[in-house]
Automatic annotation (TrEMBL):
It comes from Teichococcus coralli. Transmembrane segments: none annotated. This is Zinc-binding dehydrogenase. InterPro entries: NAD(P)-bd_dom_sf (IPR036291), YIM1/Zinc_Alcohol_DH_Fams (IPR050700).
C-alpha cells in the first residue's frame, strides 16, 4: 500500500481522504486514516468519488486517465510517476503536476514534526538486513505486502 504515508499526511493536514485498496486491505487502510475505502476489485472509484480537490496519482497509465473524472473544476492532480497530460488537465479544468520529495531540511523537518506528533505512523510488513536486499525485492515483486518492507543497516 504505497499510499499509506501520503494518506496519513493528507489527513494530518485536515483532508477528507478516500483511497482504493483490495477488499482484504480495507480495515488496514481505515486504520491508517482513510475516511472512504473503495474496493478496487469490486468498485470503480470514478463511480464512488466526485468533486475531489486533490487526486494523488501513484499508479500512472490507465489509472491516471480514469482519475480526471473524480476531480472537481479547479482541482489538482499530482502524480509521483508520470506527469499529468497538460491537454487533459486543460480539458478537465484541473491543474496537473509531478511531485517528488526533495531531501531538504525544511521538508524533512516538517515530516519529522508530523511523525513526532503521532499523526503519521509506519506499518512495517517485514524487516530485512541490507545483505538480504534481493530477498526484500523478491517479496515486493511476488507477494502481497501490507505495509513497508524495510532494510536495516548493521551497527
Amino acid at each position: 500500500m504505497p499510499d499509506a504515508f501520503f494518506r496519513q499526511f493528507a489527513k494530518a493536514k485536515g483532508a477528507w481522504v478516500a483511497t482504493t485498496v483490495a477488499g482484504e486491505d480495507a480495515a488496514f487502510a481505515r486504520s491508517l486514516s482513510a475516511d472512504r475505502v473503495i474496493d478496487c476489485k469490486a468498485q470503480r472509484f470514478k463511480e464512488e468519488v466526485r468533486d475531489s480537490d486533490l487526486v494523488l496519482d501513484l499508479m500512472a497509465g490507465e489509472t491516471q486517465d480514469r482519475s480526471w473524472a473524480v476531480s472537481k473544476e479547479g482541482g489538482r492532480m499530482v502524480s509521483t510517476l508520470a506527469p499529468p497530460s497538460e491537454e487533459k488537465a486543460h480539458r478537465h479544468k484541473v491543474s496537473g503536476t509531478n511531485f517528488m520529495a526533495q531531501p531538504n531540511q525544511a521538508q524533512l523537518g516538517g515530516i519529522g514534526r508530523v511523525i513526532d506528533a503521532g499523526q503519521v505512523r509506519g506499518a512495517v510488513a517485514r524487516s530485512f538486513p541490507l545483505s538480504e536486499v534481493r530477498a526484500a525485492q523478491r517479496q515486493l515483486e511476488n507477494d502481497h505486502v501490507r505495509g513497508t518492507v524495510m532494510l536495516t543497516m548493521a551497527d
